[in-house]
Amino acid sequence: MTELQLTQTGVIDHVIKLFQENMPFNQLLGVRFVTEDDSIRLEIPWDDKLTGNPLQKILHGGVTASLLDTIGGLTAILSAVKQTQDGHLAELVTRLPTMGTVDMRVDYLRPGRGKRFIATGQVIRKGSRVAVCRMELHNERGDHIAFGTGTYMLG
Amino acid sequence: MTELQLTQTGVIDHVIKLFQENMPFNQLLGVRFVTEDDSIRLEIPWDDKLTGNPLQKILHGGVTASLLDTIGGLTAILSAVKQTQDGHLAELVTRLPTMGTVDMRVDYLRPGRGKRFIATGQVIRKGSRVAVCRMELHNERGDHIAFGTGTYMLG
Amino acid sequence: MTELQLTQTGVIDHVIKLFQENMPFNQLLGVRFVTEDDSIRLEIPWDDKLTGNPLQKILHGGVTASLLDTIGGLTAILSAVKQTQDGHLAELVTRLPTMGTVDMRVDYLRPGRGKRFIATGQVIRKGSRVAVCRMELHNERGDHIAFGTGTYMLG
Amino acid sequence: MTELQLTQTGVIDHVIKLFQENMPFNQLLGVRFVTEDDSIRLEIPWDDKLTGNPLQKILHGGVTASLLDTIGGLTAILSAVKQTQDGHLAELVTRLPTMGTVDMRVDYLRPGRGKRFIATGQVIRKGSRVAVCRMELHNERGDHIAFGTGTYMLG
User: Fold this and answer.
1) Sequential pLDDT tens for chain A (155 residues)
2) Which residues of A touch C137 (CB under 8 A)?
3) What is the value of ipTM here, to two decimals?
4) Would you call A125 and C132 a contact, using CB atoms and an 8 Å cutoff?
5) Residue D147 and residue B147: Cβ atoms within 8 Å?
6) Minimal CB count within 10 Å: which of B19, B113, C53, C60?
7) Where in the numbering of this chain does the Thioesterase domain appear (chains A, B, C, D) (predicted)?
8) Which region, left, alpha or beta, applies to residue D114 given φ > 0 means left and ψ of -120 to 50 means alpha?
9) Topology of the domain comprising B8-153
């Protein structure tokens, strides 16, 4: 791994790379991490192996939960990075291994039907130790499939 | 598919088979359905592809959520079958395609470390249209990894 | 009580009156029901008796939960009325006594400080038997104090 | 106020007194704090002013949520006190004003009918900064009325 740059941009790139390349389950699902301007979202194409409901061709509720949890955790960590001054980023990086989800609620609004699914998140409670995020899953037509609310420990 | 027997036992076998054989995502995860006396549980062996935390060898939170959601939904449906008289089972079977999770909360108690994981569930609110279940995930040593609470629509 | 008019407007007035005049706990809290155009919200003035945190002058978390649950339930019922044709309103009215909250999540974002608090809600999952709502609590300055998510049984 | 004794017992008494005497909303509800051996529970007698459902004589969902939130927060704080050595209690006491609920889920299992209601809690995830509790509400006959799950910030 190339040397980590202890700037906000450097740490953000490092975190996204960890999620993308070092979390095998995200690769199993086929998750792509798409950054645009100042935001990040997940995208996943439909794949028959993600089918949940045995009688309809829709996403397994666990796939939805996985995408919402992943974007929620990533959003929480990136927000923490953005509110940390360069001088304190080293300390934040040492806490990365103990960051994680405390709890999450998923509300399933519609059957998970579509060709492509997009997960987005935003922080609704910021803090140095705990953050709370709201997450959403839509399909490529903009149908709103699920809401998530997650509480994340920032180490 | 062999003909469905419209008895409680026949419908229970039918539902378990649907979850086991017709939900590809459960097969992707490697879920086994274990019935014992009157109860059912899920088991899943550790597999590197299920890794979540990039810096530790622990289950992705989405795998935990998937297992809890699956055992919760299965427990809710089987409970509905058990409280349905044989004469009404045909009507229940027609509702199977529209059964599904309304919402779920997952509480992550410990890092998901282990060689094998076991998911169990119980109904805490019974109803003909909606059921609420509590679910638990333990590893093979009995460490309690996560709690779940899910609300399921029964058609 | 005057005779109930079995029109959407008549049933809406009836339901709001039930919440306002026949739920003593709402009166104990000092809740006012404010209708405007097609929407309804709750308002409550600060009162020392609602103090929760012993060391700060802020709302008890239970007051926040009460307001969110009340507006969530009311919003769910009014939405059900609005999607019911006049000919079926009598049947809906007979189900009112068994409508109620299945589950609710509250996210506390900021200390509940203010002179006046406003609770609003919207339906995110409609259904004939179950509805899911998102609720918000703000103070008179627009500070966002809490989010709620509730699942309601419609009889 | 008498001088605070910086022993575990002293701080526990101090915290319970704060909840009992300095949270007016608990007094408005009529909450009693009952300690027995090493545990604490809340008790509340039925009172018409706590009525929620306008068409049945049952507890307002907000009362249930208030009781669960209160016992959850108290249980989380007392657990933190018990795992803190005497030398660090002063620092914990300074954090008391910023302790509070991050999020809570309530599952309503049965109508809140009874002469007396008892709320109990237990810690399911311990931590120095965040604790997660499970709470239960029963009536005097032992009927299980509601479950709660709450995440608490410990300063």
Assistant:
1) 567 889 999 999 999 999 999 999 999 999 999 999 889 999 999 999 999 976 778 999 999 999 999 999 999 999 999 999 999 999 999 999 889 999 999 999 999 999 999 999 999 999 889 999 999 999 999 999 999 999 999 98
2) none
3) 0.95
4) no
5) no
6) B113
7) 57-143
8) left
9) Thiol Ester Dehydrase; Chain A (3.10.129)
